[in-house]
Amino acid sequence: MRYKKLGNSEIEISVVGLGAWAIGGDSNWGESDDNMSIRTIHEAYDLGITLVDTAPAYGLGHSEEVVGKALKGRRSDFVLETKCGLVWDGGDGSVLMSRDGVTLLRNLSAKSLRKQIEESLSRLDTDYIDIFVTHWQSIPPFKYAIEETMGALNEFVKEGKIRAIGISNVTPEEVDEYCKYGTISLIQQKFSMLDRTHEKTLMPKAKEHGLTFQAYSPLERGILTGKVTMDTPIKGIAKKGIKWFELENRAKVLAVLDKFEPICKKYNCSLTNLAIAWTAAQMDNMNVLCGARKVDQVADNAKGGDIVLEQVDLDFINNAVAPLIAE
Questions:
Q1: Cα atoms in the 13 Å half-sphere on the side-chain side of 114
Q2: Residue 3 catalytic?
């Protein structure tokens, strides 16, 4: 596993991070085995993955609780990342979505953030969070000024409750605004070889401000692993919402993946490894966040952090997927 500095901070993170969304086990992903999830987190560390990302909204607090149990007694081994900005207690906030009998609301007010961080610290059973990320940005009718949000986050840094601040699902203009009011270390955004929406917008912003770009869903919820066939049933909201799982698009993706077989043989790697390695190569300060809740999944993800692809192979992959992303 390779390691890099988080933004301009002194925190060192593994190139591949473990995403704990599925560990929450809600309707997005289906039932999860907590004991297996804990073993997966421990295996991740043994394989060199030190960064673990979770969020209160993942399983309505359950993912944080499981991560907290996994890190018990070995907290200093890990770089712990969780998020803020989504609540479901019936208070104020702009609606994000409704699922599992609750409505998730966006709220990045200073008052709400104080309550949110204390709840996350309690669920995670820790005194501090390494990276605290604004999960979804506030919007009308409950839109709060970034200055107010950053004021609260800066206080948490002074209090020792968090070590670094990250932002997710943002616009380039919001990145500039956040950086006006304090030190930001990370942008977390969806990015994969099939979704390069932010390649010419947020990635340059990350470079401009010296931030780590953390790509989530680099495997497109599993379609790029090669483990999905035309007959694979798709379960859970998270996958059903991805256009690549539609049968017509799935056939096109699988045809492209077949073209990567010679590259996989060259590097003695799986398609999962290849997709992760490709993502890591897109920027010097790139972190690749890969979800897993089973030991074999995290083992496959970890190997992707060891592979450095030659330019000729990066070019081949780019040319192969170009027709797909042009549609």
A1: 7
A2: no
* Ordered per-residue pLDDT tens for the chain, 327 residues: 999 999 999 999 999 999 999 999 877 677 789 999 999 999 999 999 999 999 999 999 999 999 999 999 999 999 999 999 999 987 899 999 988 889 999 999 999 999 999 999 999 999 999 999 999 999 999 999 999 999 999 999 999 999 999 999 999 999 999 999 999 999 999 999 999 999 999 999 999 999 999 999 999 988 999 888 888 887 766 676 778 888 888 999 999 999 999 999 999 999 999 999 999 999 999 999 999 999 999 999 999 999 999 999 999 999 999 999 876
Residue 113: count other Cβ atoms within 10 Å of its Cβ. 24
Question: Among 3, 45, 58, 128, which one carries the catalytic annotation?
Answer: 58
Residue position matching structure tokens 């208070």:
91
Q: What is the pTM of this model?
A: 0.93
